[in-house]
Amino acid sequence: MSDAVLLVVMGVSGTGKSTLGAALSKALRLPFIDGDDLHPRSNVDKMSRGDPLTDADRQPWLETIRRTAVSGVQRQLGDDHGSHPEPNTMSETEKTLDERSMVVHNGQPSPVRDEDQKPGIIIACSALKGSYRSVLRGETLSEAEGSKHSGKLPTWFVYMKGSREVLTDRMIKRQGHFMKAEMLDSQLKTLESPENEEGVVTILIEWSTEDQVREVVRALKAG
Questions:
Q1: Average pLDDT, the chain
Q2: Model confidence, pTM
Q3: C-alpha 29: how far from its chain's center?
Q4: Residues in contact with 141: Cβ distance below 8 Å, sequence separation at least 6, in sequence order
Q5: What one-character-per-residue DSSP string does 138-191 give?
């Protein structure tokens, strides 16, 4: 899978991860999944109450994202080699991600991609700590799980960087999102900048979506 890519659009809430992820999906012709949709109900309930998630809450969620993202790319490549989870052993979250990981072919979801299309998947996920990003890179799965699901899928992070002032304004204006504006400070305190890590593209949230996409595409080509 060396020619494939897992592209994680990361940052605190309010940076516009979903907007950029959808735009990159269109530009790169890759499926996009919002990681927030994959949280178990227990996590969503905690965040709705304003309670921050613990690392224990996040660990299985992050592992599911990595594991099933790899499976989705394997389906695009037509290269399961028996490592694709059987449907009756997959959680509902994994089934959802697995279905969405298919490319769009002739207007319909399909595991088959055009010959000139680079395989991969784009996922929006806060990924605030280095340890979380290690899970998403497939570096921390158990030996058994890693051999089946981690693969050699290169992982890039698109770090959406912005000031507290801009983020606060965005959070206050958002409607229908379980993240509360008063939790922003907690997220900013938790954030461990990925800027010194390999495979990271830093994007400023003040840029237009078009400029953000252009910079990501440039970095991927140069990388």
A1: 80
A2: 0.80
A3: 16
A4: 63, 66, 67, 135, 149, 150
A5: T-SS-HHHIIIIITT--EEEEEEE--HHHHHHHHHH--S-S--GGGHHHHHHH-
